[in-house]
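Hi U.,

Before I forget, here's the chain from the pilot set. I'm dumping it here mostly so it's searchable later in email.
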Amino acid sequence: MEVALAAMLWLMVLVALCTVAQVWLGNYESVRIFIDSAFLSFRPIAGWPAIPILPAGGATGAVLILNLTAAMFVRLSLTWRKLGLWLTHVGLILLLGGQFVTGALQSESRMILPQGESVSEMESAHSSSFRKLPFSLTLKRFTSDYYPYTNIPRAFSSLVELDNPLRHVHRQVLISMNHPLRYGGFAFYQASFVQGGKSSILEVTRNPGWLLPYAACLMIGSGLLLHFLGKLRRGAHV
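Structure:
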């Protein structure tokens, strides 16, 4: 139990660090460093091997999955009374395992939106290839807010126009740092900007396993509800 609590607390710290780092590094790079990597590393001199310092999301998640799996089979008996706890443990394992599925199957790209231009192509994050979308986005307005007396952006957002003639979709959507646009199996995140806000840079991800966290949360919630209802029922019969 102590190992699981320590791992969950450390994951919360990593998520907080990842969220703050998005301002400077962007969504993709922040997630890669703090969540997808096995360890947080330090490279003292350029060209030298990176030195692992602290566990990142990969190693922490693996420890937590192993701990939950061992606790489930060692401490829980196969009875109907323990069904709620079994669902809760399986849901937690599915939630954590979904991150590894995301790392294996998710694709990342970026889209540069000049002011007033319609764009339907994405540039791969790992190569110079482009993928054509069946719809287009047009940057209508870009806004940014800076920390007082600095050039560090505190928040920025893009008002885009989504146009898909094949499905008769034509609407405006505000994309901000923590509020992406999800459409057509893609998620568009506000990542950065260039030319003083004349062009907006969106990070585009496609994750076939994006429903796994929702299924896991539903399983965890159902398991906890069953467990506490069982406790109440047994307490009422005492």
